Amino acid sequence: MNVNTDESKDLDITLEDGAWLDSFDKLLEPRPALRELNILKKEVHASFNRDSSVENSISSKGNESSLLKPSQEWPNDLNEDIQSKSNSISTPLVHRGLKVDPFKCSLSPIGAWRLLYFDKGKNINKDGMCFANQKKRLNCTPLTPSIQIVECDEPVKKTAFNAIQSQDSTPALNRQTNRFQHVTRTRNTRHVCFESTNSKTTQNLKEKSENVVTNEKDDGKGDVRVPSLTLQPGKWRKSISAWRRKQVEKHPNNLAGRQSDKRNSSVEFIGFVGTIVGKRKSIFLKPERISENVLRISTPENHEVWERRVLDRCNQRFPLPFEELYSADKLTNCMKIGEGAYGEVFLNTTSKRRMPDANSTVMKVIPIEGDIDVNGEKQKTFEQILPEVVISVELANLRTDVNSANFTCGFVNVRKVACVKGQYPQHFIKLWEIFDKDKGSENDHPDIFDDSQIYIVLELEFCGRDLESFQFQNAEQTYGALLQIVLTLAVAEQAFQFEHRDLHWGNILLLSTNVKELKFTLDKHTYSVPTKGVKATIIDYTLSRMSFDNCCHYNDISSDEDLFTASGDYQFDIYRMMRDVLGNNWESFEPRTNIFWISYIITKMIDGVKYKNIRSKAHSTYFSKLNNLIGIVMNFNSAIEFSKYLMDSQV
Ligand SMILES: Nc1ncnc2c1ncn2[C@@H]1O[C@H](COP(=O)(O)OP(=O)(O)OP(=O)(O)O)[C@@H](O)[C@H]1O
């Protein structure tokens, strides 16, 4: 789901410049005075990543975006005129003053990030790079290169080499552990790109890539059709679902009519090459209790058990009438603020001016159990919604007792979970239509629901804007937010063996605050973290994993091939990295996945988020700290380890 950016403008509750600075900081900061004299304009740090996505989407000929926007049509022939289409790509180098575009070579759109791995080209030499054109697939020297780029066009060789050599970023790859790897393809020009610093890893990656290549389908013209999927950074579920629908529609053996039984806990999609590429299921297991394994079998009795469990969590015995529980007179200052593949998000404020604050309530309305597809997806069942409810409530409970062994306010507060039934209330439909008229909705009109429809409503505390749209004062503030995020993950790791598994910048919310410090307790050790004026909150546990009450709640995405072939941002590498470290067993606990997401967040803080003041001493000091962290974060094995390191280095 994305909160519309225009809407977000109305939600601007960012503190005034310098509101969070103490008086000493203010003495050091000459900017307000200069601004008053109109000598200095407000500074906004532009995002390299974002710019590069945008630029990458536009070819030199002005061709269409190669990024898949949810509303966009996917071209009929992915393979069409591969070489003649846009092959331009932008990189941070352009922003750093390089006049030529060294990446007119169809590298991955993630070039901006990937090049951070190289230390001024020191480890790169021409022999260490290997290229093969399409005819000589993977015909390259596998030993000891720092990078291999396979299946690029021949002319890219020189320009790519020059680009990497002139790169002035600090290295981000942990050269001891060699954990980073990358296999990607762009839509217009096929290539597989590996990164590694030793021959063993390179060899492994080569083997992996050969598998990728073997899975591709030859179209008989010597070209290989690649079901490449380039997604916009951030919320990906809607785009991937739209893409899948498109594949189903255009597939010659269209089996779209084939409906899977919703009680099978699975949704089937017919993929690009005619295979099932996504088999999504949410699983709730209690391995230590045999009765729970019996629950794996879908029977009407079992269905009742799952329903009862969800209702227990709602403190209800049966679903309540939607219209009554959320009547118009209780929601006088309400508006729709976002939408996602699974439902709609409304905001009810306490003030008439509709200025949201921490007293405002966000309502996530998720239709469940119905037979009709909603927004191209099967509706979740009671069984499938239970993990999300349990995880949301238990993580929110980490804030209830400040004296408990593990304490954090960093997960979104759940005020109430309700199960309701009936047609969508008229006042919600009106709000839906206003949103649709103003911003355009991609979701189905809620009048598709009849009076037998059941919904889960999650009532959440309003937590601000997401990391992508929030404007930070400077890097000291982002660093403050980072500490909060890392500690919050650490506390949940300790309490629940928690892994978020989808912590992209749409799932971190930020709200300006006057509170000076926040408390976190990790395994009975209490830490005070200065807020620097922002409060960070983690949301959206759709892919999360946690152990609670002898149960393992997780989402088995092992066969979700689309997600693992997506590209367009470092974010999409993380899904592959998680799959590798978990050995594609999504039930197991591997806290390194939290480290992967922390490394992603740091890169966004360096190269993605918006800053107001980038010239202050505080900004450069903390910006260097972030840069240092990106060089070491992958050495840690868990958020617990990393948070201890950060807190120790605070003093
Ligand atoms: N507590 C909150 N405070 C402010 N905004 C929120 C809150 N919860 C959700 N939102 C907004 O609503 C959007 C959708 O929320 P969320 O990510 O939980 O839904 P989702 O259905 O899981 O989305 P998707 O499935 O598309 O990823 C978020 O991106 C965020 O902008």
TrEMBL record:
Top-level taxon of origin: Eukaryota
Domain Protein kinase stretches: 331-651
Documented EC number(s): 2.7.11.1
Amino acid composition bias (Basic and acidic residues), ranges on this chain: 205-224
Biased composition range(s): Polar residues: 51-69
Keyword terms: ATP-binding, Kinase, Nucleotide-binding, Serine/threonine-protein kinase, Transferase
Chain spans, region Disordered: 51-76, 199-228
InterPro entries tied to this protein: GSG2_C (IPR024604), Kinase-like_dom_sf (IPR011009), Prot_kinase_dom (IPR000719)
Catalytic activity: L-seryl-[protein] + ATP = O-phospho-L-seryl-[protein] + ADP + H(+); L-threonyl-[protein] + ATP = O-phospho-L-threonyl-[protein] + ADP + H(+)
PROSITE patterns documented for this protein: PROTEIN_KINASE_DOM
Listed GO MF terms: kinase activity
PANTHER family (UniProt xref): INTERLEUKIN-1 RECEPTOR-ASSOCIATED KINASE, SERINE_THREONINE-PROTEIN KINASE HASPIN
Name of the protein: non-specific serine/threonine protein kinase
Organism expressing this protein natively: Bactrocera dorsalis
